[in-house]
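Case study 2.
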Amino acid sequence: MASQSGDRAVPGHTRPDPIPAVDPQFISNILESSGDPRYEFWKLLVRAISYSALIHRFADKAQTSFTGKPLPDGSNLDTRTFIPGGGVETNGSIPLQQMFGYYREWLTWLHYKELVRLYITKNRRHATTGIDDTRITKELAEHLVHDTRLQENIQAMRVVEREGTFDHRGDLTWVYDWRRGVHDGINAMQLASQEAVWQGRDIEDAIHEAWEKIPTEVKLLTILIEEEEIFESSSRIKHVEDTLVDKRIFILSDKSVAWLTYAYAQGLREGYVDRVSEYVAYISKSSRDIYDFRLLRDWGYGRPWKKLYYIIETKEKPTLSDAIRNLTKLFASSKLSNDLIGVHPIDKADLPEEELCVICQSEFESKEMMLKTWCDHNFHPGCIFESWDTEYKFDWICPLCRHSPGELRDRVTFDAEKKDFKGDADELFAEENRLEYAWHWETEHPYEEIPARFSVAVVRNARLTNERDNRERDQRGALPGL
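Prediction:
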């Protein structure tokens, strides 16, 4: 992205942030307006104000510098190496080491086999059930959500944005140009709207004329970060740490479900699921807004994929094609430049002829997202996640070449209470069908763990048995019992 003159500072030198403020009233008017389809383009630019501020903060030299891959025990996240002849070379930081501790506790919590623990005392006449929900009320709500390592980083982010003092990394000055372009564009749109009122012109036409003058690279970066936010937000609805929530978080263990009637187990789960979902979504969103968390998780251990791409048709659009090439060069200038934006642009013309998603057998079309795995195979994100979300898959395996980037619990050394049971789904379902009476396991072995391969059958058969019992009670005229 071309450098700008005037208050453009020499890269690497500390200076107050010169980016001009935008009028909040004009911003509010844009966000609240509708009717003219062009407002959607303008709203895109308005939303980029906060996105660009976040990425701009990530470009500060004060942020942690780390090279290499984090070790499972986190021992290389704050190291000092003495250089012959004097000096010390630093890799990592204390905040990064602290964030590792938080991430390890987060993964430990996600690997609990049950969040609500039941204590069942049986005698000849009845059974008494006790409930321990401290893993939700204490560990999640009071500790992980309000952990000082998370909250202090969030507060530090706000302080940096308020004080507006940056010392840019030399390879990330393009971030400043982008943010400045966003603010300049919005201010130009506001000025155009004011002039239109004085001149008696159509206000929307004047605003759009100003919008069209914004550099193509600024608008393209804005689209990319918007697509990234849409992807991450939609993913958080059903996933946590890129794993289907229903495969990762268990309110009750399989054995507890088998002990209880299906109706009572469902009621107990529903009493906690909204609260847990709210807290998990908060952690997923807030932690990713912290540089050290992204440096550790997204850019260190890595996500299950190599990169996300937004496909753009540039036929007869040379300016757009040039913008894609320019951004591609900027992203390739350093690892952090490549990592900073999660979605990169790709010209549809640069895709191999008849490139297909091997799952749906459809071509990648313009304005679609394409996910490239670590083994360099391309899929629609929805298609590959449908494969990854299969019940017995936990290693994000490529359905084409069977390569796997590893499992979530392989990243960090911690005590995983729940072991992820993996296998071929067809074989496992066939085996479950043969375990028609697997629910007898609890009767015959009341104090033993249910083998992982029995768990699905136990829950299924417990539900069917209790539904049958309820039907029989209804037929006898009695109220359904719990």
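The first helix runs from residue 24 to 32.
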